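worker-3 :: picked Acyclic terpene utilisation N-terminal domain-containing protein
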Amino acid sequence: MTEVRVLIPAGALGLGWDANALEAGLARRPDIIAIDGGSTDSGPAYLGRGVSKYSRAQTKAEWAILIDAAHRAGCPLVIGTAGTCGAGDAVDWLLEITQECLTEAGRGARVAVLYSDRDAEALSEVWDIVTPLPGAPATRAADLSECTNIVALAGAEQVQEALATGADIVICGRTTDTAIIAALPLAVGCDPGACWHGAKVGECGALCCTHPDTGVIEIAFDATGFTVTPMAEASVATERTVAAHLLYENSDPILLHEPGGALDVSGATYMGQGKSVRVEGAIWRPAPYTVKLEAARVVGQGIMSLVLVRDPRYVAQIDAWCASLEDRARAKIADRLGDVTYDLELRRIGLDATLGPLEPGTATPNEIGVMAQVIASDAAIAREVAKTVNPLLLHHPLTAEEPMPTFAFPFSPPEVDLGAQYEFVLHHVLPLDDPMDGFRLEVFDV
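worker-3 :: tokens ->
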């Protein structure tokens, strides 16, 4: 069995890559070019709305380069989780871009499109076999009808079906990050443990190497393992950078669960070979076939305000100030608006806005930005609540006796309409008798 070379240009379409590194990768005659299109990293809004987080112009420019690169290399091009979220509308968005790129290049291609969308009613009928994963929200079958988009994460089997059509370009809806890389090596008989391990290492391109922003890496799979080689001249893969990637977006650095089984890297070995790393020893442990489900729904309409607090006394007592302000705001809202339902959150930017109570830092900053976020079922209510909070953000004193302070709004008006706000509904798994159950594959000759 010959080795299978997978060229990965970047961690995601839209991030860019080193042009010389891409050419170096093409010179090594890849068997496939694989790139991810997104994930849930940026929150539920993209899945909820069915749109990409990346610029259309940037996406088109990069996608056109990859279409040309695959044509010159004589190999297929595959993208997973198209349009950030992998929902049908986002997949169609990238299909439209693909058609434009081919037309402008004066070139035709066979394009296979894998849709990962799930019907809420059909899913509710089999809800009794759906299992929540750790940390999943409490979800009932009745909640599914409120979801704007529901997707199932395809694995290698569904990507293999798309490649088997002879497509030049494969556009996939939601997939696991690893599936598009593992699919071809698995199909031709490379070691399963190595296929999944190498796919995990390579899912984010050169993030598993030094100079990660160069993007482009090659992973060569064979019967006993895989070799990671960065394509940029300055970039190097080391035992540490490669092994460490099992910690990335994975709660267990030894086990990685995928549709149909789990990757066990407890016996993996890593050996540096110049700028490359050779990896062997991972084991694939088959299990009943399940796919992860993701969904999002609108939870309300959002308004955001931001005020900058620099007075050293207020900065030092920002906890007390925020608590007092929130108590007073809630009292005013109840008095003026009555029994309305809303959510009000104050985040202290520069202090603990990211980690909250888990924040380990102890330094006192020069200033703190206090961001008030309001979510209510109706945009008018959210704005009324935000405007009620407005004068308190500007003038609320620490104590009743002291002179009224004035803080700084960085823009006017300070209320920013955030539009519909979404929340994740599904973090569950669904067993399948056939990996293609519920997935839809269409082929176009463009």
